[in-house]
Amino acid sequence: MKTDRRDAVMLAQLHRSCELTAVWVPDAAHEAVRDLVRARATAMRVLGKARQHLQGILLRHGRIYPGKKGWMVAYRRWLTTVRFQHPAQQIVFQDYVDAVADAEALVEKLTGRSPTCCRAAPWHPWAKPCKQCAGSPSSLR
Description:
With 141 residues, the protein is mostly helical. The protein has five helices and no strands. Pfam families: DEDD_Tnp_IS110.
């Protein structure tokens, strides 16, 4: 059963009562930047999981950082001193350390490319305040 007439009447009633909301379909440039933002968000999740795996192996083997804050320079220096008795454990530990370093590099790379894409885009006036709120050291010019 065709419902074109019923749909048209329903849309007219919704329009009259101001219950319709405007919809905007993003163009190719906006979709490309959204893809970049999604990739960075995925990289951030991967970084979080990599750090979680690294902290998990440390906790399982009783290696507890004596300092106050993790993932700062002192923590990273401490990670270089951590050693395990069994070579297999040391291999796994080093693999987790490398995974964290790789994930951090990817996040940094994607974060560094964001200003380049946003500079030419129509949302440039909004990109700079967003970068400042995110605590990124790089700024848009």
